[in-house]
Amino acid sequence: MNIQKVAIIGGGTAGWLAANHLGKALLDKNVSITLIESPDIPTIGVGEGTVPAIRKTLQSFGISETEFIKRCDVTFKQSIKFQNWLDKHIHGSNNYYHHLFDPPSPMGDDLSDFWLQGSTKTYADLVSSQHAVCEANLAPKLITTPEYQAIQGYAYHLNAAKFALLLADNARQKFAVNHIKANVVATKLHLDGSIDSLILDNMGQQKFDFYIDCSGFESILLAKALKVPFVDKSQQLLVNKAIVVQVPTEPDAIIPPYTRATAHQAGWIWDIALSSRRGIGLVYSNAHLQDEQAEQKLNRYLDGRLSEYSYRTIPMHVGYRKQFWAKNCVALGLAQGFLEPIEATSIMLTDFAAGYLANRFPTNTEQMAGLSERFNQTMTYAWERVVEFAKMHYCLSDRSDSAFWIDNRDSKTIPEGLHNKLALWKEYVPMSEDLFSKFEVFNVENYLYVLYGMKYGTKAPHTNAKSLAEAQKHANKIEQRAQLLCKQLPSHRELLQKIHQFGLQKV
């Protein structure tokens, strides 16, 4: 049977990303796409950070970067600045490192060997000019730099609710996606267990050939109707709650061009600056910190002003579905699963999965068995790599001021794949060949920034005098470029103001 009618259940970022990916891929293939969005469920709006891959996605949808920046309160994100993730008695009370978005060592051979010889600079400062740009709160480009192009690598911080509205407009106008406001009150199944139809509260029974579950934590199709079990990862990633709050900022306040991630005794705090507010969330393990203590910590972070704002606590069920594609249903976004937002992985995984599905969408039901098997293998691999990468931030820490950090170093909580990588990287500097799948979510440069930002003790290789001299020349070029960029690039807020006034050049 040919697949001609597709339903996406749920709006928000996940639903509308899926609508754009599928709408673009299926526009000329006689397939109708209908997004069914509940009028009663607000967008979660917790994860407001992205990774650089989103630029390519938005450009492929035909969305103007200028319009995106104006409509979604966008600011630029060039890094994640991890603060106090190491023992303050050893590394200082304000220790930090940057996970930058520009690749390290851009002007010659990898400088990791050189850094391991005992450089006095932090790893990111040695290998990339972007470190200095971030610390100076500068923009990643000029007003004359065309849309989506960059001088320094970047992603975005954004207002998630406004982002969903922009994606919705684009999907409806460019890709003819139908939009229905309704609640799904029941799901009817075929005898073979696949989904036959949905019962909507205001339209009755609606039948489709294929279903995309973007219904968030509820996962009303994949989890509730198709009974796909959950793979719990709470024994590896220990944080399971978050207190989230939005804090207004002054019109002339400095906008850091990075996410702040500040560790505390039982987790960490994210701090994302938009142009007029900060999105802040304290994530923690309730096995190591009571809810009242967590509120007190967040109140201290906000200089005693928490009571002035509306805030809420969100439970985090950490893990993913055993299958992401079951029968004639694929889950995306939070319906797939949830891991803490330590590296902005939620939107990243949604974008990756939606793009992959669009490129391998079945034209008929006979193709689904083979395609679903491959999709499930790929997405399981991707989720496991994200678990490993997130866990690495914790198990590399030498903090011992609480049971939380000590428990995170317990070998029983470290995934086997990560354990094997760390054992290899004790002896050798990471290289791309260590990550052998094309479906890696994080590349070797991501590992390098975190490993050596946290001062991982790779054995320093033997390096001859000539190689050291060449490496020093390379490092000097990076430092000179950093000085030049700090003179040329505008402040972050200045560039945003110019974009709102003049717009960026079209590509």
Automatic annotation (TrEMBL):
SUPFAM superfamilies: FAD/NAD(P)-binding domain. Gene3D superfamilies: FAD/NAD(P)-binding domain. It comes from the Bacteria. PANTHER family: FAD-BINDING PROTEIN (PTHR43747), FLAVIN-DEPENDENT TRYPTOPHAN HALOGENASE (PTHR43747:SF4). This is Tryptophan 7-halogenase.
